[in-house]
Amino acid sequence: MKVLVINCGSSSLKYQVLDMTNEVLECKGLVERIGMDGSVITHEKTGMDKFKLVVPMEDHKAAIGHVLMAIQDENHGVIKSMDEIGAVGHRVVHAGEKYDKSVLITDEVYKALEECIPLAPLHNPPNLLGIDACKQLMPKTPMVAVFDTAFHQTMPPESYIYAIPYEYYEKHGIRRYGFHGTSHKYVAERAADILNVSLDDLKLITCHLGNGASVSAIKRGKCIDTSMGFTPLEGLVMGTRSGDIDPAIVTYMREVENLDQGKANEILNKKSGVLGISGISSDFRDLEEAAADGNERAMLALKVFAHKVRFYIGAYIAEMNGCDAIVFTAGLGENGIDMRDVICNDLGNLGIKIDVVKNKVRGKETIISREDSKIKVILVPTNEELMIARDTYNIVTGKGVK
Ligand code: AMP
Hints:
Elements: E1 2-8, E2 13-19, E3 24-32, E4 40-45, E5 51-54, H1 60-71, E6 85-92, E7 103-104, H2 107-115, H3 124-137, E8 143-147, H4 157-160, H5 166-172, H6 181-195, E9 203-209, E10 213-219, E11 222-226, H7 248-257, H8 261-270, H9 273-278, H10 284-292, H11 296-320, E12 325-329, H12 330-335, H13 337-344, E13 366-367, E14 376-379, H14 384-396
Parallel strand pairs: 1-6, 6-8, 9-12, 12-14
Antiparallel strand pairs: 1-2, 2-3, 3-4, 4-5, 7-8, 9-10, 10-11, 13-14
Bound molecules: adenosine monophosphate.
């Protein structure tokens, strides 16, 4: 069976077609500038050159219409007719407390996701637009929703309750939810395979270090804590997000800088993080280059970032009373050789000994700790789309999901 994976943003959309009989990626693509001038689709059939088509796409339905044309294209397509697509898997950001695993999309599920819009006002609406468009264009094809929050629903209350009046949790759902769940789950499963140990027997710390970044503590396959919270703003320092700060800074900053709520939000989400500290870039490659040239603020940004990751690793080792492996993934986690080195450096007393030679690797599943490291350190490239396709396939074929 072939599965179409759709990840809809407000003006962009990523897609892949995977053949789930052997989990092979057949094609992938990106639609950008939906509803704007210069809408463009970039499509790539595995093993062939990319092709780009600039064509007006006024909304998500038009965009998905072009995706369906691209995947059926005579030269660049991977199917002859839409009948070959057995199911569609949608990435949906927020399921609140409603779902702790992926689900078949029914009218009831759709309604539940609409109810979650206040929790993710920027993300859930475009995700739902993608579902609407597919429903109209391929009404008979089953669809599955895979949530960023679902994997973290196993957190115990002491991890997810904020110390604010309890009624705000009851009335408004203000609690920690966590994000990047699909990625944390995928790399945890891969790590168990690489170590050849059942996930049920492992304590893992998974570090998803990309432009957005989060760390999770996974005990016996269940997430027991994660660094992102009510929104993806909490936790690690990120490319442009502040991560943890004293909440009193928000009101103080608004007062002294005369900022309205929207501006304050924008500063914390888009102008902070390593960009805010360095004043140079949110991209770690630029920061490493600037730091190598002696730029002090770039050096500081990298140090603050690493400090926070180490802080969470230490906290999660304490929370789980030990750890078997630390897993690095996402853009920086997979490619940032120096950053992994700095994060893991001088943690020998905790049982973490990185191997500087094995660590010189990018984007490839590798154990990068020394033989005598009690806690293994593993690099695992993430693959959220494969995870979405797997859940989708397992649900529509009745195998079910964990
Ligand atoms: P993601 O959000 O997972 O796509 O990750 C994007 C981040 O990964 C960016 O901040 C990049 O700077 C970082 N990244 C990608 N490649 C490298 C690399 N070779 N060295 C350091 N950082 C990298």
